[in-house]
Write a structure and sequence with these properties.
The structure is a homodimer. Chain A is α/β, with parallel strands linked by helices. Chain A folds into 2 domains: about 130 residues, Rossmann fold; about 180 residues, 2-Layer Sandwich (Dihydrodipicolinate Reductase, domain 2), CATH 3.30.360.10. In chain A, the strands form 2 sheets. A 7-stranded mixed sheet of chain A has the order 3-4-2-1-5-6-7, with helices on both faces. In chain A, helix 3 runs parallel beside helix 5 and helix 3 packs across helix 8. Chains A and B meet through strand 8, strand 9, strand 11, strand 13 and strand 14 of A and strand 8, strand 9, strand 11, strand 13 and strand 14 of B.
Chain lengths: ~325, ~325
């Protein structure tokens, strides 16, 4: 079997370290693994398959001989380094938001739109964590019953803000003071709001990325994103309308047979997905499927997934697997 | 000024103790205050205006000479004791769900439907915590622009499960094991699901009580209720449609002038209501008012209130004030 030279840029971050773990777990055919990061993290060592690998500072020639680079260095660094990597002839799978809405850049969830990558080489964007888990579920509805509209409110873990988000929560729970405008311990907060419309950046990402991935540029979609004092795992409360009439059982049947989806929906046994249940897993979990009589063909859905894995690292590695 | 003989049944519970505090804070004209509870809590002492009051076990004759009893003993006890209290000639303001949907029992939020109490004496139901904060806001929309439909997902603190909910969260955060099906520390869970439709009891309460209080029996309303690792304060993510066309500024103006409402909505300064901000307060907080272009006359709203105060104790005392 052919083996590949893989690099990870941003290897020491929360997502970078999880990429390393996922490559190992899925037994990705790796020949050489090159770990890259900023100057600040150079010299650190990370483990891969019982080997200690040194992290190198990223340079112009860091990508030479590499087939695929998994990028998770943040938006600004992605904008700078992705074109450099491409020049060396490698494929870039980028986890930041830098390239996602560029019309020439594929935005990929392997369960949903792998066809977009046909004959493509270059930069590929990995979607936002909350987008990924939602489109895996919505795409099944679109395929089988048609999707008319979506209203979603998210329940996002603080690991979406990376290691510093986790550290903030744990530090606050220990009673340490900080000067942040909003506490996260025993509280909730929103993602940064930087538009006059009042939408947060996360909300705008979910709207735009969902429409692009599902190839439904006019999909009516209403999004509210909330950050919670949870370490890992995102939940999403969806209210949808389908085009065709269907039943709760029809939806359960579709999800039972869908790739990358786990149906967990026994209401009277209080069985439903939670962040705790999906943590460390690669699938998207769905449950609490209920008919909503307030709308024609209305349904409620509850979705959970591990935001660092399926929402970032696993999805990136799955994109890389499409090139094997 | 006339003074009243007041009793509290369930005085030692989380809501009962808060009722005591709210009566004191609002300087309710109390002549005698009689604290009642189950046999188990009898003999305990609670403080009211620098006095130590003993808690008595509730009996058939406990309500004699009382003008108003605030009830928070749980549903089963309410069903038994409310008719007993009424026979003694007192008014009962009951915080449980026992009487709320009885068509002959008024279900009251003083900012919304005090007119229902005209010439009424008997049992009065205090609505569910998540219902109260929502109808205060929705009623303003109904009055000024008409309300076409509501989709809501809640972000509820574990204090909704009383002192035992708070104890569960704190114990789990300390690393103590338990046999509960779902953990709440660093996780979320749903309220008890006991219907084949898959709705939780809390979700059904919000739907039915909202329609009754707003006197809109056919209001299309879609509800998902979630419990979070937060000690106090409920959040609610609403997506609504108004009947008449209006702007975000129109809505802000209405809320700025509404009784019992605090508008906190400066998106670019990251000013919005959170459980931490509304904790210990008696008002309903609203912010993150955004236009939703996915629907005709569509808007997003974010609501927070202290669920033990406005969602229970304060609302009950405010109902009592209507009889002064």
């Amino acid at each position: 079997m052919k083996k590949y030279n893989i690099a990870i840029l941003g290897a020491t971050g929360l997502v970078g370290r999880t990429m390393l773990k996922v490559l190992e777990e899925r037994d990705f055919p790796v020949k050489e693994l090159r770990l890259l990061a900023s100057e600040r993290s150079a010299g650190r060592k990370l483990k891969f398959k019982n080997e200690e690998l040194e992290v190198h500072a990223v340079k112009e020639n860091s990508f030479e001989g590499i087939d695929i680079t998994l990028f998770s260095p943040g938006k600004t660094a992605s904008k700078f380094w992705a074109p450099v990597a491409i020049k060396s002839g490698c494929i870039v799978i980028d986890n930041s938001s830098a390239w996602r809405m560029n019309p020439e850049i594929p935005l990929i969830v392997p369960e949903v739109n792998p066809h977009v990558l046909k004959n493509y080489r270059g930069i590929i964007a990995n979607p936002n964590c909350s987008t990924i888990q939602m489109v895996v579920i919505l795409n099944e509805i679109k395929k089988h019953f048609g999707l008319r509209r979506v209203v979603v409110s998210t329940y996002q873990s603080i690991s979406g803000a990376g290691q510093k988000g986790i550290d903030k929560l744990l530090s606050e729970l220990e009673g340490n003071p900080n000067n942040d405008k909003h506490k996260i311990a025993f509280n909730l907060m929103f993602h940064d709001i930087s538009t006059f419309s009042g939408h947060s950046e996360e909300e705008i990402k979910m709207i735009n990325e969902t429409r692009k991935i599902l190839e439904m540029p006019d999909l009516p979609i209403s999004v509210t994103c909330v950050r919670l004092p949870i370490l890992g795992g995102h939940g999403e409360s969806l209210n949808i309308q389908t085009e065709k009439s269907c039943s709760v059982e029809d939806l359960r049947n579709v999800f039972s047979n869908a790739k990358g989806v786990v149906l967990l929906d026994s209401p009277l046994e209080q069985e439903y997905p939670t962040p705790a249940i999906c943590n460390g897993k690669d699938e998207c979990f769905v449950g609490r499927i209920r008919k909503d009589d307030a709308f024609e063909n209305g349904f409620y859905l509850w979705i959970c997934a591990d935001n660092v894995r399926k929402g970032a690292a696993t999805n990136a590695v799955q994109i890389a697997e499409l090139f094997i």
